[in-house]
Amino acid sequence: MKIPNKIKILGKTYEVEFQPNYERDEDRHGSHCPNDQKIVIDSSIHREAQESTFIHELLEAIKFQLDIKLEHTDLCALESTIYQIVKDNDIF
Hints:
The protein is α+β, with helices and mostly antiparallel strands. It is 40% helix and 23% strand. The chain has a single domain, classed as Zincin-like (2-Layer Sandwich), CATH 3.30.2010.
């Protein structure tokens, strides 16, 4: 899967950045910042973990913009399922 440097989500352009050891102390692999329209991914984790994190942060951005009420565990389940479909079917 190719992770772009920018991505449009519901009409808003988000920058995608990679940072080594990003929030490792908090056991996070990435984040979504709606105020800065930025997605940050830990560049020091395995490539597959980066891809899965990218999907997770896309879902976080969608959830925020549409004000969807989802528990974090539900979002993680969606992330895992979408990532499995993408990888198993060579979609990206």
